[in-house]
Amino acid sequence: METSHETHMNDILNKTLDENLQQVSDILNTLGNPNRLQIVSSLSKGETEFSQLQETTELSKTALVHHLKTLMENDIIENPSRGTYTLNEDGRDILTSIIDTYAGTLWRKQREEHLQAERFIKAYERRHEKMELDVKIVELETMQVASFRAKSETPEHDAAQLLANWAQGKELLNDLESHPIFGFNNPSPRKGEKEYGYEFWIKVDDDFTDEEATIKEVSGGRYAVTTCHNLMDVGDLWMKLYDWVKESECEYRDAECLEKPHELGASDKELVLDLYEPIK
């Protein structure tokens, strides 16, 4: 049976919802998007520049602009100066209320237990996968390629976009067996510098010509190859492949270390890469 206090609080809740139904619905819809919630979480730490938000969220510029505009339209964040964003007072109060409520729920505690169990299982699986590095020796032939390079804070995505835009209508991306794609750092990241370079090659026919792309011939050779199924592990796998070559009868060859995506348009979570370490 409800107490008089509970009855009073329910009356206030119902009255507030009746009078502000659309606004409450807009706020919940706005914060119900994982990307926008990630943006709000980042802004809760203080005023943040657009470039930092893009690096944190890994969103394209267009997508990030859309989400920021939605948050500002619903009066959750503000744009105090050009290129910077911050939570306003109402946004911070709303976020605090949501987190305080969530922190005290039984659902949250059960969810945390479930996530901890998942993290334990995934950590074990990753360790197991690393212990059993599957390496094969592959011989690449000399090939003619179309080359696309970008230098930025996200050069892999930018170079991939250049390649994808150029390849539209050419049927090349529909047959990656005949037209494989390889990528590599060019130049590699340097300590203290946010920008670095990345170059993609896509194999084309020997008589292929195109004025909109850089066409060149690249030498082939032998490679020790393994597959990365989780982008979070790519650095560890490169080191493990390096150690594998060092401990084998192979010798290192002076050539680019290549990354071959199984699908150019895959998201970071779904991306699968073959790692090519040059050997002789």
Jot down its keywords.
280 residues; alpha+beta; Arc Repressor Mutant, subunit A; Multidrug-efflux Transporter 1 Regulator Bmrr, Chain A; 4-stranded antiparallel sheet; 23% strand
Topology:
Layout (H helix, E strand, L loop, with lengths): L3 H16 L1 H11 L2 H10 L4 E2 H8 L3 H13 L3 E5 L2 E4 L1 H15 L2 H26 L4 E5 L2 E10 L2 H13 L13 E5 L10 E9 L9 E5 L2 E8 L5 H14 L10 E4 L11 E7 L1
Antiparallel strand pairs: 1-3, 2-3, 4-9, 5-7, 5-8, 6-7, 9-11, 10-11
Helical element count? Answer: 9
How many beta-strand runs?
Answer: 11
User: Could you please say which CATH topology of the largest domain applies here?
Assistant: Multidrug-efflux Transporter 1 Regulator Bmrr, Chain A
Average pLDDT reading: 86
The rough form would be described as elongated
Describe this structure in words.
The chain is elongated. It has a 4-stranded antiparallel β-sheet, with helices on one face. The longest helix has 26 residues, at 106-131. The chain starts with a helix and ends with a strand. It has 2 domains: 4-103, Arc Repressor Mutant, subunit A (Orthogonal Bundle); 136-279, Alpha-Beta Barrel (Multidrug-efflux Transporter 1 Regulator Bmrr, Chain A). It has helices at residues 4-19, 21-31, 34-43, 50-57, 61-73, 89-103, 106-131, 155-167, 234-247; strands spanning 48-49, 77-81, 84-87, 136-140, 143-152, 181-185, 196-204, 214-218, 221-228, 258-261, 273-279. Strand 2 (77-81) and strand 3 (84-87) form a beta hairpin. The protein has 280 residues and is α+β, with helices and mostly antiparallel strands.
